[in-house]
Amino acid sequence: MLPTPRTRADEVYGRIRADILAGRRRPGSRLPFAELCARHRASASVVREGLARLAEEGLVVAHPQRGFRVVPLAADDLRDLTEVRRLNESLALGSAVADGDAAWEARVALAHARLERTPQPAVGDPDRMDETWVEAHNAFHAALLSGCRNRRLLAIALAARDASVLYQRWTRSVGHDRDRDAPAEHRAMLDAALARDPDRAVAVLHAHIDRTAAVLIAALEDLPPGTAPPDTAPPDTAPRDAAVRDVAL
Prior knowledge:
The two termini are about 35 Å apart. It contains ten helices and five strands; from the N terminus they run αβααββααββααααα. Helix 4 (about 75-100) crosses helix 7, helix 4 runs antiparallel to helix 10 (about 200-220) and helix 9 (about 180-195) packs antiparallel against helix 10 (about 200-220). The chain is mostly helical.
C-alpha cells in the first residue's frame, strides 16, 4: 500500500510542532495567528487546523478571544510530578527487578539495545529530540517497569512517566547539564536490573529522575511567569538557552 501523501496542513502542523518541541516556541508563549500564516506561507484555515491538532495533543492551549499559546510548564508542577514518579516508579522497579521473569529480562535488554543504537538529536534539528529516540527511550523505561506484578501500581507508575514526557521534550532546549552522560545512566539501570539488585536499580533511577528535574526546575524558574520572552519573536530568532546533549527523564 502506498503511503498517504502529506497535505499542506500536515506540513504546517509538523513545523509548528517541531518548533514547540525544540523549545523555539517557549512554554506559555503566544502563537500569533497572523505571524504563523505569514511565516509558513499558509492560509488561515491551514494554520487553524494545525493549532487545533496541537491542542488535541496537549502542546497548545486555546484561549477564547485571545488565541493560542504553547502549553505552560511550571516548576511547582514538576516538583510534584517528580515526587510522584520517585515514589511509584521506585516501588514498581523494585518489584520488577525482584520478580521479573526471563521474558522480562529479554524485553529490557532488547529495549536498551534499541535505545543505544538510536541517535538522540533529530536530523537537521539538533535542538529537538528525534521522535524515534523518544519512542525508544520511553520503551526502555516501560520495559524496566513491566516486570512489576502489581498491575495497578504499574499503571500508576507508567501514567506518571507519561505525564513527564512533555517536560522531557524541552530538556535539550532549556537544560544546562553539559557534563551529563545519560547513556551511562541507562546502562547502569540495565546492569542493576539484570544483576537482580533492586536497591542499586532504584538508586540509579532516583539519580536519573532527580538530575533532570533539577535542570528543568532551574530553567523554568528563570522564565517569566506563564510566558517566555519575547512573546512575538518568530521561532528562528527567538532567544533560547544553549542546547544540551543527553538530558532525558
